[in-house]
Amino acid sequence: MDSAILDLKRVDAYLGTHLKGYRGPLEAKKFEVGQSNPTFELKTPENSYVLRRKPPGVLLKSAHAVDREFRVQSALAESDVPVPKMLLLCEDDDVIGSAFYVMEHLDGRTFLEPTMLGERTETRTAIIDEMNRVLAALHKVDIDSVGLSDYGPPGSYFERQIGRWTKQFRASETTQIPDMDALIEALTNATPKDDGQRTLVHGDYRIDNLMFEKQGTRCLGVLDWELSTIGHPFADLAAVIMQWQMPPGKEGRGLSGIDRSSLGLPSDQAFIDQYCERRDLPGIDNFGFYLAFNFFRMAAILQGVYKRALDGNASDPKRAQIFGSYVPKFAQRGLTALGRG
Predict the structure, then answer these.
(1) How far is Cα 304 from Cα 310, in angstroms, rounded to an integer?
(2) In sequence order, what are the beta bridge partners of 113?
(3) What is the per-residue DSSP string for 77-116?
(4) Class of the 121-337 domain?
(5) Exposed (0-12), middle (13-18) or buried (19+): which is 313, by Cβ within 10 Å?
(6) N or C: which end of the chain has fewer CB within 10 A?
(7) Cβ within 8 Å of residue 337, ≥6 positions away
(8) Partners of 229 in the beta sheet?
(9) At what angle do helices 287-311 and 327-337 cross, to 10 degrees?
C-alpha cells in the first residue's frame, strides 16, 4: 500500500472514533479500476468497507466532489435505485490529506465489458434488461421528495454542461486538438431547446459502474456518482450507447463489430425503445446530439486524466497516459455523431 495514497494509521484512528461498530486492525487494498477518485477496500477481522477519497495534489475546481457522491447515494437509500449504504463522510483534509467517505462493501460482481464473455445468453439478456430498468428508475426518482431538488442548478442542462466541460478541457489542455475545437463549436450551435425534463442523472452510467448479484442478475448497486447532478435524462441514456459504439476489449469495452443477437444483447435502438417504454415516452428525436455530447464530455474527462498524469497526480499514471491519446478520437466520433465528421 502506498502510504502517500492512504495513511492506514490515520484512517484506523478516525474510524475507531467516528464509525459505530468499527474495530481494527485494518488492512486496505486499492481497487485497480477508477481513474478519478482513488477507491479502497478496507478489511477488519469482522467487516469489510469501501473508502473513496479525493486524489492528492492540486485539483480542478468542482472536480472529485466526494461529498456530493455521499449526499446523492444517501438520498437514494429508500428509492428503487440500488446504492451501497453510506456510513461516514469526512470533509477534514487534515485526516488523510483530502476528503473521503466510507460505505458498505457490496458482495457482488461487476462486468468490465458489456459482452460479458463466459456468461450464458439468457444471463446477458437479463443483465442488460436490468441495466435498462435501473436507468429508467433513476430518471423517475422524485427529486423533491428525496431532498435533491437543489442538487443541480436550473436552466438548460446541456448548455451548462457544455460550458462546464469546455472550461475543464481548456484548464487541462496540453496541445491544440482541432477536432475538439470543432466539436465544442458544433455542440454549442446544435444544442436543442430545453424540453422541461429535469431529473437526477448519474453522469457516467455504464455496465462497469453497476454491481450485480454473484449468482443472479439483480443489480445490487449503482457506483461512481462523481458526475451526478440534476439534468437531462437523455444524457445518461446516450452514455450507454456511446460506450457500446466503442471497440470491444479491455480498453474500448464496447460492442462495435459484435454480433449482438448471438450473445443475447439488444441493438442500440432496441435498448432506447425499451427505456422509452419504461418511461412512457413516445421516442427520442435528435439522438445524435445526445450521443455527440457524451463523446465530447468523455474527451474532456480523459484530457483531465492525462493532465493529472503529467502533473503526477493520476490514480493510474500508465493508463492515464494511454487515455490521453484517445481524446482526438473521441472528438472525431462526436463530430461523426452530429453528422459533421
Answers:
(1) 10
(2) none
(3) TTSSS--PPEEEEE--HHHHSS-EEEEEPP--B--SSTT-
(4) alpha beta
(5) middle
(6) N
(7) 288, 289, 291, 292, 295
(8) 201
(9) 170
Q: Does domain 8-104 have CATH number 3.40.50.2300?
A: no
pLDDT 10s digits, 104-135: 999 999 999 999 999 999 999 999 999 999 99
Integer Cα distance of 55 and 247 in angstroms: 29
pLDDT at 159: 95
> How many residues does the structure list for the chain?
341
Q: Nearest 5°: phi and psi at 238? A: -70, -25
Digit-coded pLDDT (tens) for 58-105: 454 555 689 999 999 999 999 999 999 999 999 999 999 889 999 999
pLDDT of the residue at 2: 45
DSSP H stretches of helix in 157-286:
157-172, 178-190, 233-244, 260-263, 268-278
Cell numbers for 84, please give them.
451501497
> Cβ(328)–Cβ(177) under 8 Å?
yes
Domain ranges for the chain, please list them.
Answer: 8-104, 121-337
- Each residue's pLDDT tens digit, 143-161: 999 999 999 998 899 999 9
